[in-house]
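User: Could you check the structure of this?
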Amino acid sequence: MAHRIAVIGAPSLIGREFLRCLAETSLAGAEVVALAAGRSAGADISWGEKAVLKTRDVARFDFAGTTLAVFACDAKLAAVEVPRAAAAGAMAIDLSGYFHMEPDVPLVVAGVNDQALPRASKRRIIACPLPASLILALVLKPLHEAAGVRRVVAATYQPASGAGKEAIDELWSQTRGIFVNDNPEAQYFTKQIAFNVIPHIDRFMPDGATREEWAMGVEIRKLLDPDIQVSASCVRVPVMLGLGMALNIAFDRPINERDAREALRKAPGISLLDRRDDGGYASPAEIVGEDMVYVSRIRRDATLANGLSLWAVGDDVRLGAALNAARIAEAVYAPGI
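Assistant: Sure, the predicted C-alpha cells are below.
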C-alpha cells in the first residue's frame, strides 16, 4: 500500500530532521507533503537525496487520503490540526506536547513501550514525550527491569535547540555580540543565554516547578511505571545542540556498578562510554547527529542503600524527537501491517 505522509511544521528544526530520519526507513518511498502555518508556508524543504518539497499552508490542506500526519509544530497549531487530521482518517503523531497527558492518547518511545501503540486506534493520535523524558526513559528502562527504579533526581542541561531555530540564532548573535562589546538582548529567553545558564524552561507552576520539570515526572510514570518518582531541575545552557543530564537513582533492589553497566550494555539505544580517565565520558558536542544515548560516569551513591549516579547525553532534536517519530511511523505502517 502506498502511503501519503503529511509533515506539519516541516521547515522547523524537528520537521527537517524528521524528513531526514524518514528517508532512512522503509517509508522512504511514500508520498510526502510538507505543511506549515503563516510565513513558513512556501519554504523549500529537502526530501531524500534529490527531491525538494514546496511547503503548503496547513489551514488549506485536505487531509483526506493521508495515512500519516506528523506534527513537528507548536502546541497551538497542533490543538487545531491534529483532531482535523485524525477525523479525516490519518494517524497523527504529535511532537508538540499538546496531547501527551491525555489518558486515552498513548505516549510512546519506540523500543520502550511499543505495546501502547494499539491504543491509538481509538482517537488515531500518538503522542511523543519531551526529548528529556525520552532520553531518561531509554536509560531507566533497562535499570528498572534489573533492580526496580523507585526514585530519580534529574538535573538536565538543555541546549538552545529545545526552543527552536530562533533560539539558536539568539545564542549565536549574543555570543558574537559580546565579543564586539554589543549589549546582548534577550528575546526568546528570559535572560541572556550566551555565557550564562537559565534555570527556567517553560512556564512556572504554583508549586515553583516549571512545567518541563513537572512533565518529566508525569511522562516517565506514563511510559514506564506509575510508581516511579521523579524530581527534575531543568536548566537551559549556552549549547546549540545536545542534551545532557545528571541522574541520581534510588532502586528497590540492590544493584552495583557492574550490574548497571551490564544492563545498559545490552539495552537497545544505549552506548556506554565510561572510563575513569580524562575524556572517558560523553559530552553534548560529541553526540550531535547520533542515534544513541551515551551513558557515562556510573558510580555508587554512598548515601543510599541502593543508589547510583550517572551522566547521560543525547541529541535532543534527532534522537529526542525526530527519530522517535520516524520509528513510530515505521512501526505503525511497516510493510504488511
